[in-house]
Design goal:
Layout: E1 4-8, E2 11-13, E3 23-27, E4 30-34, E5 38-40, E6 51-55, E7 58-61, E8 66-68, E9 78-82, E10 85-87, E11 90-91, E12 101-103, E13 115-119, H1 125-137
Parallel strand pairs: 1-4, 2-5, 3-6, 4-7, 5-8, 6-9, 7-10, 8-12, 9-13, 11-12
Length: 139
């Protein structure tokens, strides 16, 4: 397992035009994408978007860096992220050229979109409030 994956104006892709989809599986402690970097399993033609499975401690995406499993004339793929923290990105119904996005869309319409599953620990809001209150009062 690589401790860190860093992409700067780079691509990690598994793309197809027809038939079955390509998949990407990543297991690392830290993923950092910046400057229009992408992790994609996009499909052209009638192919279905591939699957992306990421297991990591944290993901940081900056400067319009995307994680996508999109399709043109097929079904969108699936993105599964298991992380302790995700920073500067999130699920979007469509890609936006000004933000870092996680998508699994199809140009055929929303009924053909794939799925995005983001699994992060749930923070207890009472604990968080008490932590912030204690921290701010100690200064």
């Amino acid at each position: 397992m690589a401790p860190t994956i860093r992409l700067d104006n780079s691509q990690l892709t598994a793309e197809t035009n027809t038939g079955d989809f390509g998949n990407i599986g990543i297991q690392t402690e830290d993923i950092r994408l910046r400057n229009n970097s992408n992790i994609t399993t996009n499909a052209q033609g009638s192919a279905r978007g591939g699957n992306i499975v990421i297991n990591t401690e944290k993901i940081t995406t900056l400067e319009n860096s995307d994680i996508t499993a999109n399709a043109v004339r097929g079904n969108g793929g699936r993105v599964v992220i298991n992380a302790q923290g995700i920073f500067a990105t999130g699920y979007r119904e469509q890609q936006n050229p000004r933000t870092s996005d996680i998508t699994a869309t199809s140009d055929l319409g929303t009924e053909f979109n794939g799925t995005v599953e983001i699994k992060i620990p749930i923070v207890d809001p009472v604990f968080l409030f008490l932590f912030v209150l204690k921290y701010s009062n100690s200064q």
